[in-house]
Write a structure and sequence with these properties.
This protein is of the alpha/beta class. It is built from seven helices and seven strands; from the N terminus they run αβαβαβαβαβββαα. Helix 2 (97-109) packs parallel to helix 7 (249-262) and helix 4 packs parallel to helix 5. The N and C termini lie far apart (96 Å).
């Protein structure tokens, strides 16, 4: 009669075998993750090179190229309570800070090509702001000479805010390598948000432009009852509290002056 032999594995040997298998799997996963990360970066770099062929901004070779990234202070579309596609709440598009900075640059540099982008999605997506960075790709280029970043006012969750700002600025430095980057301070205060932004600028070696004396100052707000004009020159009266709290013509000019002074 044959007897079944039982092989009893000691707990130590079993644990060692499991650890060895996990390490091997971990190394394989890390290798795969690194490969995916490298391929993703290669694709991203290639997409920047192909911007002109894929609907991206075609930045000229023979001009001073300026990109303004911001929120509604930089550009806001037409809605039921706002009537012009420009920086809210300038009375006319040529009165917002973007146009004023462009005009000032033209006096200094001559031919200027300027583009602006509302990147408010970055502000409100607090759980993973890095996911939104790809939205910038069609705007970024080694041909850009100046980037202004006016982002903060819609941020309420500050858990990863400084780290996210560092990530944003690093992204811009990578894909606009010769650009001078200026970060504009907050127009409205909230906790230590402005200080975190300034610290991120220091970490990245990027210039920070304080709006002290301008921010939270009613003298620079648009105010209720102010008359503004649509693109056809028709007048409209500001009756929306959110619009009224934005910088009016005086505020826009003050912001533009701070940026141009830094240049």
């Amino acid at each position: 009669m044959k007897q079944k032999s039982l092989f009893i594995v000691s707990p130590i040997v079993l644990a060692a075998a499991i650890i060895f298998a996990l390490v091997k799997i971990g190394r394989h996963e890390r290798s795969q993750n690194e490969m995916i990360s490298n391929l993703t970066e290669e694709v991203r770099v290639l997409s920047h090179k192909l911007n002109g062929m894929t609907g991206g901004v075609e930045w000229p070779e023979d001009s001073f190229n300026y990109l303004a990234i911001g929120n509604s202070l930089t550009v806001h579309g037409v809605t039921t309570f706002w009537w012009n596609e420009c920086g809210m709440a300038a009375s006319k598009d040529e009165k917002d800070y973007f146009h004023l900075v462009t005009s000032g640059l033209e006096k200094k540099a001559g031919n200027v090509y300027s583009v602006r982008f509302n990147f408010g999605a970055w502000e409100i997506q607090a759980h993973d702001r890095d996911e939104t960075l790809v939205s910038l790709d069609k705007y970024l280029s080694p041909k850009i000479d100046l980037v202004t970043v006016q982002l903060a006012e819609n941020v309420t969750n500050l858990d990863t805010y400084e780290k996210d700002y560092v990530s944003l600025l690093t992204y811009l430095k990578t894909y606009c390598p010769k650009a001078r980057i200026l970060v504009v301070g907050d127009f409205w205060s909230r906790e230590n948000r402005d200080q975190l932004k300034e610290q991120a600028c220091k970490e990245c070696g990027v210039e920070y432009i304080s709006l002290e004396g301008i921010k939270d100052n009613n003298d620079y707000f648009c105010g209720l009852g102010t008359t503004v004009y649509d693109d056809d020159g028709n007048p409209h009266v500001v009756e929306h509290g959110g619009v009224a709290a934005h910088p009016g013509d005086t505020g826009m000019e003050a912001i533009a002056d701070r940026i141009l002074k830094a240049l």
